[in-house]
Amino acid sequence: MCAEISKEHLSTFNRQLQTQLHKELIHDFSFPRAVCKSLSELFISYFDLYFGNQRKEGQIIFHAVSKDIPPGVL
To answer: What does each C-alpha distance from 57 to 3, 8, 39, 54, 60 come to in angstroms?
Structure first.
């Protein structure tokens, strides 16, 4: 499943993804804020490095898994 995002909204989407990662790291793992910020920036840079060539400008790729698969397996 793919969804197109316009260039105007791409930076907003990236910020939202980074914010979501940051909040989940704080909530789920109780890391300090500075560590969460650093990790979320690192994750986003790895996503762009390893998966950036799989999408065109403004395109998002979703990977679906069964709800029965526990977190961290894939």
So the answer is: 11, 11, 24, 10, 9
Evaluate whether 62 touches 11 at the Cβ level (below 8 Å).
Answer: no
* Residue 54 per-residue DSSP state: G
The overall pTM is greater than 0.85: no
- Quote the CA–CA distance of 22 and 44 in Å, as a whole number: 11
**Domain presence at residue 72:** no
Give every CB contact of residue 21 below 8 A, 6+ residues apart in sequence.
39, 40, 43, 44
Tokens of 31: 């890391």
List, for residues 9-61, the tens digit of each pLDDT value.
666 666 788 888 888 888 888 889 889 888 888 888 888 777 766 666 677 66
Q: Which domain holds residue 30?
A: 2-61
